[in-house]
Amino acid sequence: MSSQLIALEVLFIVGLLTIFIGLPWHLVYQRRIKLGKPLLDQWSSEESTLDLLDVVLTFFCYFGVQVAGVLFIVSNPDPSDLTHHFLQMSPFNSAAGLTTLLAVFLLIPILYYRRRDLRAFRLRHDRLRELLKIGLLAAILLIPLTMAINVIVGLLVTPYSHPVIDTLLAEASVETLIYTVITVVVAAPIVEEFVFRGVVLTYLQRAFSGNWATNTLILCKYSEKPENQFKAADTFQRHGANLLTSLIFAALHLGQGAAPIPLFLLSFGIGHVANKTGSIIPCILIHMLLNGISTIPLIYIVLSHA
């Protein structure tokens, strides 16, 4: 490869990074940070009363439904799959990924019954237009940065991999593509944001705030109030819950090559949005846009070989 071609490629990459990462962040710096304003204004909201039992119920449903789906696939293999491997992504097996949505449909009534308020797990939908705008703007800042870090880590450490993507490319059928895109772009963002930002982050933020009696962190009535609603939080209290939630989120993506590192950073950014707005709606939008953009090359590959 000639030095001129290498120079052009480097120039092209630098240009992309400047346009999609440098320019948006520079505009944010000029409009917000330089003027002494935070990236996002803090929205007023009541403190959630989620307790440890809510978290346990959430993970029980989240993992339980997935395990049940896998067991169902194993016991009812796709007739066209001669290997009977449960990760073989036929339309039948791919649809099983949508069963993770059942976790949300099971959890929302349970948690609402215990908390009497959808806002307790950040299903806040007032000021919906503003929430969607924040989600879109945050996506412009976070998604290119996340994808760039993913590429860098993939080149320097280990390449990105995902069993769903690998099996999708192996089969390369339009039917499988449709089911997989719905699963990845719609189901996964809704479920994961509800579980991690709606429940886990919300609970940990309450625990890290220091405003609650220790015993209420295990079991807490929905009518319970914090001991000190105006206690000043230090840096660790403000960001500790988000840091721990992001570590858990990244750890659950181990085995996907480079994914845990950029996903940790993405999770921290999304968690910041959730903490500022008190809603998971912009978080879901960011997650959907990231997964949607990531599937565009796969759609092109599958359709070109169909």
Give an overview in words.
With 306 residues, the chain is mainly α. It folds into 2 domains: 1-37; 45-225 and 233-305, no CATH class. The protein contains 10 helices and no strands. Helix 7 runs antiparallel to helix 10.
How do you describe this structure in short?
This protein has 306 residues and is mainly alpha-helical. It has helices spanning 3-31, 52-75, 91-96, 101-115, 128-156, 163-171, 174-209, 235-251, 260-277, 281-305.
Cα end-to-end separation? 33 Å
**Helical stretch tally:** 10
* Average predicted confidence as pLDDT: 84
Order of helices and strands: HHHHHHHHHH
User: Which structural class should the secondary elements be placed in?
Assistant: mainly alpha
**% residues in beta strands:** under 5%
Helix fraction bin: 55-70%
Reconstruct the topology from this structure.
Elements: H1 3-31, H2 52-75, H3 91-96, H4 101-115, H5 128-156, H6 163-171, H7 174-209, H8 235-251, H9 260-277, H10 281-305
